[in-house]
Design brief:
209 residues; globular; NADH Oxidase; alpha+beta; four-stranded antiparallel beta sheet
Length: 209
């Protein structure tokens, strides 16, 4: 199975070759992979910023634990979850569903009311945590797609979200930086690429019931 082979190939790249860039064609494939990610109710209540601008990345590096990946990688992905879920977000999804599946909008009203009811049961903090979790699913698709294309990647939680929100003007857009990832091509100087992958044994990780 090529998927398993490629997952064994990938690792959290610590040092990128700054001279190598991901092609436009591969970037479009990665966008499609993230776009097709699983999302609760299919809502996709997040936005992904793809940052190439070096000046912006230099501003982000100090609030990213000064990690070199921020400036050396080909691209920086910033996954941003919605900070507040509005009824309009559900309505927009229903409109898109009606168009995509050639359905009558009124036939989707019951489903839309159900989603609104279930989300209304959550507190603001619970909604925020829920929408933040959704971005990690999209992140997983990005990492797996990168491995398929032999593009190196590094998921990163080592950053100051509030500073990202400030520098990128996310708060006024109703967004929050939840998780980031850098992609590109590994440097020959990155010694971590030669380390064995450490994972729990199958028998310890799984339990049949």
């Amino acid at each position: 199975m090529e998927f398993i082979k490629n997952q064994n190939w990938r690792y959290a790249t610590k040092k990128f070759d700054k001279s190598k860039k991901v092609s436009i064609e591969n970037m479009e494939l990665l966008k499609q992979a993230v776009r097709l990610s699983v999302s609760s109710y299919g809502l996709q209540l997040y936005k992904i910023l793809i940052i190439e601008n070096q000046e912006i990345r230099k501003k982000l590096q100090p609030v990213s634990w000064n990690q070199s990946q921020i400036t050396d990688a080909s691209h920086l992905f910033v996954f941003c979850n919605y900070t507040k879920i509005k009824p309009l977000d559900i309505d927009n999804y229903l409109n898109l569903t009606a168009i995509s599946r050639a359905l009558k909008l009124e036939d989707l009203k019951g489903y839309g009311d159900f989603i609104k009811m279930k989300l209304a049961e959550k507190s603001i903090d619970e909604q925020l945590n829920w929408s933040k979790c959704q971005t990690y699913i999209a992140l997983a698709n990005l990492l797996s797609a990168c491995a398929e294309l032999k593009i190196d990647s590094c998921p990163m939680e080592g950053f100051e979200a509030q500073q990202y929100n400030k520098i990128l003007g996310l708060t006024k857009q109703g967004l929050n930086a939840s998780v980031i990832a850098t992609i590109g091509y590994r440097s020959t100087e990155d010694t971590t690429q030669h380390l064995s992958k450490v994972r729990k044994p199958i028998q310890e990780l799984f339990k049949n019931i």
